[in-house]
Specification:
This protein has two domains: about 210 residues, no CATH class; about 160 residues, 2-Layer Sandwich (Heat Shock Protein 90), CATH 3.30.565. It is about 65% helix and about 10% strand. Helix 4 packs antiparallel against helix 5 and helix 5 packs antiparallel against helix 6.
């Protein structure tokens, strides 16, 4: 498996990936290789001192070969490499560079006699091993260089006057160095390939995320445009429906009350009463839709002024009294501090919210039940207007759901009572406009309590009234 990974590059999917890896790897290593190739020339020249010490009668010849032939050739190769002449063919430069050094050492080893010849193979190994590590070659080149060193060493041993013990020691030393070098370069290149693949996958992931982000942004803008178009459409339609609905309500009221004379047959008067009632209900729905549309477009207005909460609560209960009487629901008030304070806010909007909450409580209460309107203050000084019914209640997962426009709790009872699910949404808008909160507390089968919480800033005590 390791050999297959070395020679077949199983980490890559195609030849293009292999080529891209090699190009990227060579580009990253170019500066280091350029420096060490130039430094290697100096290192090799310094070995002339060894020739001077141990070469005896061959010293002058070896020094001249080293400095006048090999050093210029190595310097030419290093300079050409630095100039980019070997771009894409770096291995050829390394092979030429190492071959020149090996050839000179082999030449010296073949000429010099025992015991001096015992030192030069070790020098050859030191040069090849150190330069191989410094040049950071590919694994293939490392194997090639190691094989070349071992073959060259065999030639030296065969034709030189090296002693047997020195030969054995040299072979062992060279083989161990080559093995260490091959294993090290394998893991180095294997790690580099894995890191390169990780980099490619990371770049693909980042690009995918960018595309997904752009698609999400585009979808968001499209959704906002669609939402705005919907709100504008509802606002226009609701506005256009209000005029004919007012006419229907007005004329049906005239007929049902026989304002302009007796209506015959009597069933017509009854029909007119139903038309008036249905028209009023439809107009209320239209007004709710218009309010929701205005709120979504930030066009809904709130006018803050001081008003009497007691009168507003009475008006809300009176507005719902007909429905309460029809359903035999008793509406009672608890608490209240009449005359001690007044409210500062939009009276019409707060009245609308109270009517919606009380109307919902009546609609979802069983026949003969009781709806309680409780006025109190929280420990933080907030005014709480809580309306409690004795209906079927709401499941916990539906509480936040029903605060959204056109949403209702899922139950057959709700569906039978109809409605568009706008009441609590409008109440939430009113509460937010006053920096307050709409709280819903409920359990299935235990009834529901909806509280309109207004902040202390909305409460003006009578002694502090302007």
């Amino acid at each position: 498996m390791m050999i297959a990974e070395i020679f077949q590059r199983e980490h890559f999917d195609d030849a293009l990936a292999i080529e891209a890896f090699r190009t990227d790897s060579n580009a990253r290593k170019f500066a280091a290789r350029r420096f060490f190739m130039l430094a290697g020339v100096l290192l090799y020249a310094i070995y002339a001192y060894l020739d001077y010490l141990v070469a005896g009668p061959f010293a002058q010849q070896f020094i001249m070969v080293r400095l006048l032939v090999v050093v210029p050739l190595m310097l030419a190769i290093a300079t050409s490499f630095s100039a980019g002449w070997f771009q894409g063919r770096e291995n050829y430069a390394f092979l030429a560079y190492m071959t020149v050094m090996l050839a000179s050492v082999l030449y010296m080893c073949l000429l010099i006699g025992e015991p001096v010849a015992d030192f030069y193979p070790f020098g050859m190994v030191v040069i090849v091993f150190s330069m191989s590590m410094l040049l950071l070659p590919t694994l293939r080149l490392t194997i090639t260089m190691s094989f070349t060193v071992i073959v060259a060493q065999g030639i030296v041993i065969a034709f030189s006057q090296m002693g047997r013990e020195a030969a054995y020691t040299s072979v062992y030393f060279v083989c161990m160095c080559c093995i260490v070098l091959i294993v090290g370069m394998y893991f180095l290149e294997n790690t580099e390939r894995k890191q390169y693949i990780y980099k490619l996958e990371l770049e693909k992931t980042v690009e995918t995320l960018r595309e997904s982000e752009q698609r999400a942004i585009n979808l968001y803008h499209e959704a906002k445009q669609a939402e705005r178009a919907k709100s504008e459409f509802l606002a226009v339609v609701s506005h256009e429906l209000r005029t004919p609905m007012n006419a229907i309500i007005g004329f049906s009221e005239i007929i049902s009350t026989e304002m302009m004379g007796e209506v015959q047959p009597p069933q017509y008067r009854e029909y007119a009463t139903h038309i008036n009632k249905s028209g009023t209900q439809l107009l209320n729905i239209i007004n709710d839709i218009l309010d929701i549309s205005r709120a979504e477009m930030d066009k809904i207005t709130f006018e803050a002024k001081e008003f009497d909460l007691e009168a507003t609560l009475d008006s809300a209960i009176t507005s719902c009294s007909a429905n309460a009487k029809e359903s035999e629901i008793f509406v009672q008030r608890i608490g209240g501090q009449s005359g001690e304070f007044i409210l500062c806010g939009d009276e019409a909007r707060i009245l609308q919210a109270l009517i919606n909450i009380i109307g919902n409580a009546i609609k979802f209460s069983p026949q003969g039940g009781t709806v309680t309107v409780e006025q109190s203050f929280t420990p933080r000084g907030e005014l709480s207007l809580a309306i409690k019914d004795e209906g079927i209640g709401i499941s916990p997962e539906d509480i936040e759901h029903i605060k959204q426009p056109f949403q209702q709790a899922e139950s057959a009872f709700v569906r039978n009572n109809g409605g568009l699910g706008l009441g609590l949404a409008i109440c939430g808008i009113v509460a937010d406009a006053h920096d307050g909160e709409l709280q819903v507390e409920s359990e299935l089968g235990e009834g529901t309590t909806v509280s309109l919480i207004l902040p202390p800033d909305c409460v003006v005590m009578q002694g502090k009234a302007a």
